[in-house]
Amino acid sequence: MDDIARDRNGNPIYDRYGRPVRRRAARPAQAPRPQRAQQQQPPRRLTPQQRFPVPTPRPERPVPTPRPERPMARPPFQRRRLPRLQGCGCSLKALIPLLLVLLLVTTLWVDTQLNRVDALPTHQVPNTSGTNWLLVGSDSRQGLSEADIQRLGTGGDIGTGRTDTIMLLHIPRLGGGKPTLVSIPRDSYVPIPGHGSAKINAAFAYGGPQLLVETVEQSTGLRIDHYAEIGMGGLANVVDSVGGVQICVKEAINDPLANLNVSAGCQKMNGPTALGYVRTRATAEGDLDRVVRQRQFLSALLDKATSPWTLLNPFRMLPLIMHTAATFSVDRGDHVWHLARLAWAMRSSPETKTVPISGFANYDVGSVVLWDDNASAQLWNSLR
């Protein structure tokens, strides 16, 4: 047989150059190697030291040197969980609805304690822009004890027929600018419906709040939407409830009739002193100076009453609520939330003005203040 490699069909196998591939020659068979005879060796005996070796102690590892501490990275923000109150097993979150309910109940209770009167007349002028408040400080001594009369220096009871303070607060519509607080001198000579012309505070003596509101509407052309009145004793109690008010006095004033003796400069006034400060006319401009002091005092009182130190202090907040509710008189359609809106408007630094006057005169009703017709008309037109 030739030495050409063939496939299983017997055909010769060629390489890539076309040459026949030769078979590999078979290797000759090798004879097996003779195994060496294993010699029998006697068993090896171990010494006691080899059978029970003593363990070698491990070397002590060196104590690693502590690495310097690196400043820890700020942990990611995590919302704090409100601590749970011990003893009742409830969280502070559960107190929020209770506080809201307590606030609602307190608000409704204060609303029921307000003194309500028929202040708005049956026939009023047409609606005007914004919201208008008539703020009145009554000169009444009714309800004051002999000790209060001596402490406040108000004199005896003269009834409810006089007003020491008359202010008109105009709150514009939302986005319409700042509120405007206009002082109306109590001796202003104006027409009083059904009673001819007289001092404007005489309207309160003739017909109470309704006639006073009607007189103000006829003189200004502005529709009065809300009414608020406070008496002498109530004013002093409110001041004492907030711990006094800080007022800067321009000049020293000594008025025994108002039980007032203050020096120039900023000072803290208690209830009786603050009451005398807004009542006195013992200065050069008399009633005109008084309306300026009344606006200054009202601003200082509202700042103190609405400050966090008062609202968060129950020993001041509770007496303030009780005295305010018991001494304020409002129209029957007014509520405590209207007073809150009033306080917010007063706290927003309203523009303060006094009705422009042209001079003074002596009539059969006494010394009166005369308005400047043109300037006052421009003022009222700007608020309509």
TrEMBL record:
Keywords: Membrane, Transmembrane, Transmembrane helix. Residues 1-80 are annotated as: Disordered. Residues 27-53 have a biased composition (Low complexity). Residues 162-306 form the Cell envelope-related transcriptional attenuator domain. It comes from the Bacteria. Residues 54-66 have a biased composition (Pro residues). The chain crosses the membrane at residues 90-110. Belongs to the LytR/CpsA/Psr (LCP) family. This is LytR family transcriptional regulator. It comes from Corynebacterium poyangense.
